Amino acid sequence: MNVTIEQSWKDALAEEFKKPYFEELIGFVKQEYASHTCFPPAKLIFNAFDSCPLPEVKVVIIGQDPYHNYNQANGLCFSINDGVAFPPSLVNIFKELQEDLKIEVPESGNLEHWAKQGVFLLNATLTVRAHEAGSHQKKGWEIFTDEVIKTISDKNEDVVFLLWGGYAKKKSKLIDKTKHHILESGHPSPLSANRGYWFGNKHFSKTNELLKANGFNEIKW
Q1: What is the distance between the alpha carbons of residues 77 and 66, in angstroms, rounded to a whole number?
Q2: Global pTM value
């Protein structure tokens, strides 16, 4: 199957797309989308890649699963469509951003403007069945997205990886720590944040400090 994805990613991941597990994964995803309501919309499954070409990746944020309610997921982790109420994790992301950089909470939770500046917003699993969290886990997406993280680590330099929560922290083993930067904290979900593991991490200002030190433009969060 031909995967429609931004050209730099298509070239870098060409061998991955030919592997048997990926063929099986795409078959599963096609079947799911044909017989169930799934998110994000099919045309946005690879939105993180289309919005942020591989050579432009400066920051990586790793989520686990797309949002599974109507009109939320848009293919960028933690991001939602314009006009949709903020999920709890996104509320806490904006609270920390406000505290860290004195940025007003935006009207929209669509994080596409981050992606356009080089923030790669990757979910480990790129699809989900409506109202069934985790329903597309362990079908092959994690194998693919692990390879994506390794590809960024191999091909780029001085990328800032933001690993929020236990699941994301496990991905640190895929990253070459001699050439990249890793910032870790608790997850922004209320369960973690309210225990003191999220607020005060200052990841947004720390990211900009690292980018500036390495000659990159800071992110306008």
Answers
A1: 7
A2: 0.96
